[in-house]
Amino acid sequence: MEITLNVIREKIRKKMLYITTILGIVVVMIFSTDMGSLTIGGKNIKDYYVLIPILINIVNFLAGAIALAMSISTVPNEYERRTSHLIWSRGVSQSRYHMGLAMGNVLVSWISGIILYLTLGVFAIVNSYTNIIGMIIAASIFMLIYTAIICMLTTALSIKLPTVVTGVVMIVLFAGGAFRSILKLLTAALTGTGGTVLKKLISFIPDLSGISKQGGNLIQGKPVNVHVIVMGLLFIWIAGLGILVFRRKEA
Q1: Integer Cα distance of 65 and 72 in angstroms
Q2: Coil, helix or strand for 151?
Q3: CA separation for the pair 67, 244 (Å, rounded)
Q4: CB-CB contact of 130 with 124 (8 Å)
Q5: At what angle do helices 226-245 and 208-219 cross, to 10 degrees?
Q6: Is the CB of residue 112 less than 8 Å from the CB of residue 63?
Q7: Distances (CA, A) of 66 to 63, 72, 136, 146, 163
Q8: What distance in Å separates the CA atoms of residue 105 and residue 148, rounded to the nearest whole number?
Q9: Alpha helices (runs of H) in 127-191, residue ranges in sequence order
């Protein structure tokens, strides 16, 4: 627990939570302005059944980007400062140490995501949508899964890979996951070996867009896709195994 709390304190010192709050306020201010007669699917964008799902997707994307930015340097920085050697002297295993760092990343990302969702609550209250506050709170659960996937994968990769390589891989996975539904649509018409391989590769990308969509489904009274959630939890489990198994030579 001490390792996890140290990670949280470190991220707070770097003012990441303040940046998150500012981002959330900016997003709410933008979407609280008058957008005239702009419509989506024949409905005015000011209709909360249309707008709140859009905001949820934007907020989840921001929370995911922040989770990636905060997680990518945690393990490398700890080893660079040789904090790890102080941990080894206490008889703490690498597995426990790395998992503690991962949990710190996850908890900070959750705090950031909750701050962003609080801005959604403010938006709902300001626009007299108080009847959906409960659904917004429920939708935040999917954000917790969304950001945990990113934090756990980033932490696992950063144990074995250089920071730059981890960043490139995770940006690809994050972008691919956030726009996975679009990628599937674009590749649906592809045929031949290349098309088959590309479709298989996309199937290994975590379906972040699908997870985020479930929050919008709650708001709109649509059924939640349990399969998407289970697959998201599977990615967290796989990344957790990587964190427990991977080792660094600096230890």
Answers
A1: 11
A2: helix
A3: 20
A4: yes
A5: 140
A6: yes
A7: 5, 10, 20, 12, 16
A8: 8
A9: 133-160, 163-178, 180-187
Q: Which residue has the tokens 């609550």?
A: 121
Q: Backbone phi, then psi, for 163, in 5-degree steps?
A: -55, -45
- Cβ atoms of residues 99 and 236 within 8 Å: no
DSSP code at position 44: E
Opening angle at CA 228, ends 178 and 199, nearest 5: 60
Beta 39-40 vs 43-44: how paired, if at all?
A: antiparallel
CA distance 222 to 229: 15
> pLDDT truncated to tens, each residue of the chain (251 aa)?
666 777 667 766 767 667 777 776 777 667 655 544 444 455 444 556 677 788 888 889 988 988 898 888 888 887 777 766 666 667 777 888 888 889 989 998 898 889 888 888 887 787 777 777 888 888 899 999 999 999 999 999 999 899 999 999 999 999 988 888 777 776 666 666 666 677 777 778 899 999 998 988 887 788 889 999 999 999 999 999 999 988 877 65
Q: How far is CA 5 from the centre of its chain?
A: 20
Identify the residue whose tokens are 């024949």: 42
Distances (CA, A) of 73 to 32, 145, 156, 159: 35, 21, 12, 10
Kindly report the length of the chain: 251
pTM of the model: 0.85
Helix (H, G, I), strand (E, B) or coil at 40: strand
Q: Return the closest-CA partner of residue 250 out of 99, 10, 75.
A: 75
